[in-house]
């Protein structure tokens, strides 16, 4: 097993948490860290070598809630849903 350091960053780009874990190889470390539910940047180090960098998650326009349609758009939507 090889020692890896995992740095989890906050929204301001500062290290919020550092974890030390052992993995048999880089791919195992990357796979494991890729499953961490963390919305901000993550970096994986092995010694002084940067193994992986997961940038902060960015919401796409599809993920941003939209207000319900009103006025004529709402009427058109209701007709489509009714038919």
Describe the structure.
The structure is a single chain. By secondary structure, the chain is α+β, with helices and mostly antiparallel strands. It has a domain of 57 residues. A four-stranded antiparallel β-sheet has the order 2-1-3-4, covered by helices on one side. It starts with a strand and ends with a helix. The mean pLDDT is 81.
Task: Please sum up the structure shown.
With 83 residues, the chain is of the alpha+beta class. The chain contains two helices and four strands; from the N terminus they run ββαββα.
CA-based gyration radius:
21 Å
DSSP strand (E) fraction? 25-35%
One letter per element, helices H and strands E, the order comes to: EEHEEH
Work out the helicity level.
10-25%
Contiguous helical run count: 2
């Amino acid at each position: 097993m090889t020692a890896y350091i995992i740095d989890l960053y906050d929204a301001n780009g500062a290290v919020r948490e550092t974890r030390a874990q052992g993995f048999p190889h880089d791919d195992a470390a990357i796979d494991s860290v890729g499953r961490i539910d963390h919305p901000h940047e993550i970096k994986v180090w092995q010694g002084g070598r940067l193994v992986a960098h997961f940038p902060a998650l960015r919401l796409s326009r599809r993920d941003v809630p939209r207000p319900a349609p009103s006025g004529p758009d709402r009427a058109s939507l209701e007709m489509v849903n009714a038919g």
